[in-house]
Design brief:
single chain; about 250 residues; alpha/beta; 9 helices; about 35% helix
Amino acid sequence: MKTAVIMPARYASSRLPAKPLLRETGKYLIQHVYERACESNADTAVVATDDRRIFDAVKSFGGQVMMTRDDHPTGTDRVAEVAAQLDADIIVNLQGDEPMIKPETLDLVVQLLANDPEAMMATLATPIRSLDVWRDPNCVKVVCDARGRALYFSRSPIPYVRDSEPDFASGQFLQHLGLYAYRRDFLLKLATLPPEPIEMVEKLEQLRVLALGYRIQVGVIPHAHRGVDTPADYQRFVENYREKAAA
């Protein structure tokens, strides 16, 4: 099956303006993400943006990029617009602020979908190891069935432990990671459907898929890949990059 990695990238960011174009490392942040995508087994890697500055930056380092409409409510809709123009069976939605993503992680989420013909989507999770993370509403949790398919995603601490404290060594407590693989035709259909009530309550797009009765396969990896959301995140990435370059 042909695979395309699409990286939605926006210029505006409340916590880190012009994030894709930061380049203290000598490369744009979006360039680091693009290079990780190209190191995977995907057939195509494309940046999706509604900003001419990002478009020009990607072109300057030889990357593939497509302009999209500027009225998309979510990154998923932006990805779907580009996916409609590509010859691919599986679409990976990789956020444009994930410069430390491992290529093998991208390959894993694709393989999960390839291995489960009944699943329309695949995503990843990592074990939760602390009460603070489990209770944090900014940390999205996922509970899976015996086959590794998602039962529910929530900002609440799930599964709820009624009679004791959670046993994090049990492997039942998982933090969802925002990397997705879709069957292309399903993604195009999903982008046309209105939000579901439970999706609006939790503010989690993936609940639309479960509410409509579709399956999401979940793979578990040991550690989360850290994205760049704040200036401190970016400086941490720059320091890590320079340390590896000097080694």
